[in-house]
């Protein structure tokens, strides 16, 4: 007998916290919960958790003092779309040659960084392992 959870609806969850490293644990916790809700396998859940941690770390490094980081998770069956954003002055950008950036790129799909007005945004997608 096999029991499989299915997410039939698309849901969006948002988390807004001060853009400081001491709030990274909260982002990791929500990321893991959202990934599990999307019915990702355990390896993929851990990869989403790691990717959100690294995305937030990258954005905290370029955030304006006192700003909030906003993480939005769109849940679909078997995948999660993540967008993290922070207030930004346009002068600093994530170091795309850093080890952290390469870790983020290796555990996510479609990694993209962009500026939208006064917000720096990182987005990616994570899917259930097809193996």
From TrEMBL:
Residues 17-92 form the Histidine kinase/HSP90-like ATPase domain. Keywords: ATP-binding, Nucleotide-binding. It comes from the Bacteria. InterPro entries: HATPase_C_sf, HATPase_dom. The keyword Glycosyltransferase does not apply. One of its GO terms (molecular function) is ATP binding. This is ATP-binding protein. The keyword ATP-binding applies. It comes from Lolliginicoccus lacisalsi.
